[in-house]
Amino acid sequence: MFFKGGKGITDLKSALKNMFAENLVEKKEEFLNTFSSERLYIKSVISSGVALEQPTANGRSSDSSKNSKGEASDFEVFKVAGEPVGHLYSRLVPLVLLLIDGSNPIDINDPRWEIYMVVRKTADLQEDIGINMIGFAAVYRFHRYPDSQRLRLGQILVLPPYQGKGYGGSLLKVLNNVAVSEDVYDLTVEEPEDSLQHVRTKIDLQRLLVFSPIQNALSAVVSRIKSENPSKRSEPCQYGPPRSAVEDVRKSLKINKRQFLQCWEILLYLGLDPIDKYMESYRAIVTARIKTDIIGKDSEVVGKRIIDVPTEFDQETSFAMFKSQNGNVTGSESDGAKSNQEESLRQLVDERMKEIKLIAEKVSMSTR
Ligand SMILES: CC(=O)SCCNC(=O)CCNC(=O)[C@H](O)C(C)(C)COP(=O)(O)OP(=O)(O)OC[C@H]1O[C@@H](n2cnc3c(N)ncnc32)[C@H](O)[C@@H]1OP(=O)(O)O
């Protein structure tokens, strides 16, 4: 970034120095030169990386980078691992800090980080091949006892001019392919932003809709919902996937249990046709699930709560349990708290229902 020295109201220089370190330049000439030097640098890095996906032959036109399925089609992905990662990432840090909400730089001294670069090749006037960086993903590869590996997507960024054109989704698909072809244990995502979770869920649903090992289980649960009318039952009922389906999905598609459960809920929505007829039942199922997630399975036990918490560790095995000090709250206090809880629950259910409807519509459109 070009920093023009001068006396402003705020001392930007020290703030920018923290972010850009030695990449901060103060002279305009120097700044302009970085355009070609950084491009050359990216070119040299990817020439030593491993190409993972070639663009399709006819997916590109001058004003659109999406093919007929809405996927980006004019890009290549290169995997950079080992020594070059630190050097490459130190140049990406300012983008991470500026463009990914609440992000922290990864530890470049840890050799288990890999970077997947999305680039587009362009021919310049001298017919030299230029490289445009479109985005990247930082993926952590760690050992799983006894002899397996897991992949965790730590950061993903599509540069703003390229966002919403299918590149993020295409990069996720490449990562899915890596996970499946290397037969790792699973591919997880660290604290996904809503925008990323939306793209990820859409992709996973498309994969799950054609994954035959779960189709019978799905039809059986859909039929049960249709006949049992869950909204009229006093006892909450289980409409989750069978354990064998969770395991099949993880083994073949590398989707972990938490993400699969999110998708399963939407698969039920898609299966309940026509959904308007079963909306009350469906909402009751979503409400029961959210209630269990927030206030824990022991919601009837006064003072004891288990809740999921955001974590940088394995989300499936991380939770917090707390015990309230005032287990014997008085009637009016507990009534007030209860109605607040009910209102918060209703809001959460409304939000989730909106999200489910949106994703289901997008997925139905893309599979038509
Ligand atoms: C683990 C983590 O790294 S969490 C942080 C994730 N990264 C960020 O938030 C950085 C800023 N955002 C980005 O880099 C990108 O927008 C990403 C990586 C989230 C998604 O990549 P994109 O190339 O924009 O996604 P893609 O074009 O494949 O899909 C776009 C979808 O995301 C949704 N979306 C959300 N935010 C945006 C946005 N800012 N621009 C465009 N689309 C967005 C769109 O609604 C669209 O969904 P639709 O196809 O159903 O309409």
Automatic annotation (TrEMBL):
Per the UniProt entry, what are the Gene Ontology biological process annotations, in alphabetical order? Answer: subtelomeric heterochromatin formation
Q: Name the catalysed reactions.
A: L-lysyl-[protein] + acetyl-CoA = N(6)-acetyl-L-lysyl-[protein] + CoA + H(+)
For this protein, the record's InterPro entries field holds: Acyl_CoA_acyltransferase (IPR016181), GNAT_dom (IPR000182), Hat1_N (IPR019467), Hist_AcTrfase_B-typ_cat-su (IPR017380)
This entry's Gene Ontology molecular function terms read: histone acetyltransferase activity
Residue ranges occupied by any N-acetyltransferase domain in the UniProt entry: 133-192
Task: Tell me which GO cellular component terms the UniProt record holds.
Answer: chromosome, telomeric region; nucleus
Q: Where is the Histone acetyl transferase HAT1 N-terminal domain?
A: 7-101
Q: Per its UniProt record, what CDD domains does this chain match?
A: NAT_SF
UniProt cross-references to SUPFAM superfamilies, sorted A to Z: Acyl-CoA N-acyltransferases (Nat) (SSF55729)
Cite the PANTHER family for this sequence: HISTONE ACETYLTRANSFERASE TYPE B CATALYTIC SUBUNIT
Similarity annotation? Belongs to the HAT1 family.
Q: What's the protein name?
A: OLC1v1037632C2
